[in-house]
Amino acid sequence: MVPLSVRGMLLCHAGPHRLAFHAHEVASITSPEGWAAPSARRAFHSPDGAARVLVSAAGGAVGVDTLEIEAEAHPVLPAPAVAVRASGGSLQGFVLVQGKLWPLMGLVDFERFLRGLVGEAA
Question: Which superkingdom (predicted)?
Fold first, then answer.
């Protein structure tokens, strides 16, 4: 179920693309050295790369280029069903922050989606 609002997000970039994650889903943030984390850039068919890795409590991880913390509450706008399906179920909706729409992703589901994209490229 999509939340009506979200408080506490990490606003991230994967190249020029924006992504938001629930802060409570991120157990730690680390450098990419030593992690086999898929890059969020994969979702946009861009070359892998990351400056930071978001690690979930379950141990899954996603690499991003930049991040900043957004503590304010924002309403969650629903995502079209076709976009949710295209993202492997990881897209939870959109939030309007800093005058821009940010796709709100579930960290664990997004990692699973990114790992599945490796097979598509082969």
Answer: Bacteria
